[in-house]
Amino acid sequence: MNGNAPTGGTGGGSAASRPSRPRWGIRWTVIGLVAAALGGWLTVRDTSPVGHFTSAQGHDEFFAAYQRAMEDLPEPDATLDVRTDYGVVRMYRFDGAAPEQAPLVFLPGRASASPVLADNLPSLRKIRTVYTVDLLGEPGASIQTRPIRDDEDQARWLHQALSQLPEPRVHLLGLSIGGWTAMNLAIRQPDTLASVTLLDPAMTFADMPWETVARSIPASVPWFPKSWRDGFNSWTAGGAPVEDVPVADMIESGMKNYALELLVPSRFSAEQLRTVGLPVLAIIAGESVMHNSPDAARQAEDTLSRGTVLTYHDASHAINGEYPDEIAADVAAFLSELDEGSAD
């Protein structure tokens, strides 16, 4: 099934009708620095085999920003530090509706962490209990202890982490590179998954444009001015300002103070995507700079055997902050159809 609207495929608006954003939080969190992590960071990283903060001062600066950004979230009902073969994975649980049903597990974009979900949590908790994950090997409260050398390792650590949750299966919700991470798991080790929802996933259905990679490189050099990083991040989010916003400060600090030691994710082949037997909801941002949006939507429609593909025509790559309620409505409808199907 496919659609092309902000809610349920009922029609898109013009760029002028894009909704207002009362808080920057999620608006740019989506990627803030996805391209920087894929491009520029790889050119300046040091020789350590695992991701790490480059100094004690940088560590403290980042976590001061992280704690400020966490204040935009409600108090978690549980904080979990889950040990895997690749390090300790930090998760937060926020109790929500239908506790007897499989929860949502959120994977943020590259160079971001759990606070990026602040604007989405109120509407998502009306659907299910929500877990958030700080991705292993990224700036955040997860701690990488072993190299993540390829896509198989990326799937392995996440599978190990999800396997330790009390719920036997989860609905994975991935944003940007978090969407790639979710699909990578669905392709390689889907045992813990009930479904996958992808929010403008990077490197999943279409290649990243060279312009995006090129723009990321000068913005990703830690000793370059902060204004260069802010300018890049604003561009990825459709021109929105990023100064003096807690979650933006957190992501910028992570970019500056954390050495990423991950390979560039491999773009999935059509054959790999066709192997996914899970229900998949793919929501594509029509104005994304992370891929050619029509091409990405077409590839998703052509390859997902149980796919629902929607395009939010006026959304930038920061789609989750621009349309939090519409996303929640589409996720709720998607899960309702799955529940009805399982009952038949």
From TrEMBL:
Limits of the AB hydrolase-1 domain: 103-236
Gene3D superfamilies: alpha/beta hydrolase
GO molecular function per UniProt: hydrolase activity
SUPFAM superfamilies: alpha/beta-Hydrolases (SSF53474)
Region listing for Disordered, in residue ranges: 1-20
Domain of life: Bacteria
UniProt biased composition (Gly residues): 1-14
Name of the protein: Alpha/beta hydrolase
